[in-house]
Design goal:
Blueprint: E1 2-14, E2 27-39, E3 42-46, H1 54-62, E4 70-71, H2 79-85, E5 95-97, H3 103-106, E6 116-120, H4 121-128, H5 139-142, E7 148-151, E8 155-156, E9 163-167, E10 176-182, E11 186-192, H6 198-202, H7 213-228, E12 232-235, H8 239-244
Parallel strand pairs: 3-5, 5-6, 6-7, 11-12
Antiparallel strand pairs: 1-2, 1-4, 2-3, 8-9, 9-10, 10-11
């Protein structure tokens, strides 16, 4: 089994989203990370990044959210081009796992028409709620004809302990991560926005875009338990970590 780290775009946000004491004028540019896992039973994509249309007109797709999160990437940094760079197209993907349904994590779902979409049942419920737009959900990015497999607890995706989906609520009600167990490179917890930036986790700082600080604190404790067991924690938007990760065809195995 191999795991490829792929770009799903890049966005600019207020630094105060992650560090509430920061000057409100300060901004931070962060990567949007996606992961292709080539399992013997199928190609699994963890998160699908930003829809390519936001490169030219973010407001048309994201509405008011575009004032908070500004795309700053080119088409070759988008997920579809990234997949092509490792020799795959959308129809080669069997499963798309969405860590949660914010548009920088499920934006390209529409391209994967042959795939089953996996997310947590509570996340799907939150995305359908009357206040969904206020909570950062964009229906155009997640509401598609492909079937949803909505999990309610931990799920060993193929029953062989290779890709284990773990509920990590806090950032959103149904955030999930993936514990990927590789033969040579070891274990990786794809934490997504449960830990957007490593500094939040290390310093126990709750970002302003946290749905529940109480749930996120418990998630931090669970991630610390997993890390103590030897797993490498991969954050959702950490620039320093992103620079150090192998990417594209240079896969982890």
């Amino acid at each position: 089994m191999k795991m490829h780290v792929l770009s799903g775009g890049r966005v600019r946000l207020k630094r105060s989203i992650y560090f509430p004491d920061a000057d409100r004028a300060d901004t931070i540019d962060v990567p949007v990370s996606c992961f292709l896992i080539r399992h013997k039973q199928g190609n699994v994509l963890f998160d699908s990044g930003c829809h390519p249309s936001v490169i030219d007109d973010a407001q048309a797709r994201w509405g008011g959210l575009a004032r908070v999160m500004t795309p700053i990437f080119s088409h070759d940094q988008g997920l579809i081009a990234q997949l092509e760079s490792v020799g795959l197209g959308p129809d080669d993907i069997d499963v798309v796992v969405n860590s949660h349904l914010h548009p920088d994590h499920c934006g390209c779902n529409a391209f994967f028409k042959r795939a089953t979409i996996v997310c947590h049942a509570r996340e799907l419920e939150a995305a359908k709620a009357t206040n969904a737009a206020v909570m950062g959900y964009v229906a155009a990015d997640w509401d598609h004809p492909m079937p949803f497999d909505a999990i309610e607890a931990q799920r060993d995706l193929y029953g062989d302990d290779r890709i284990v989906l773990i509920p990590l609520p806090g950032h959103t009600p149904g955030s999930i991560g993936a514990l990927v167990n590789l033969d040579r490179a070891g274990s990786f917890l794809l934490a997504s926005d449960s830990i957007s930036l490593r500094a939040n986790y290390d310093r126990n700082i709750m970002p302003r875009n946290t749905w529940s600080a109480e749930h996120l604190d418990r998630t931090f404790q669970e991630i610390r338990r997993i890390e103590a067991g030897g797993a490498t924690i991969v954050c959702g938007h950490d620039e320093d970590q992103w620079r150090q990760l192998k990417k594209g065809n240079d896969a982890y195995a």
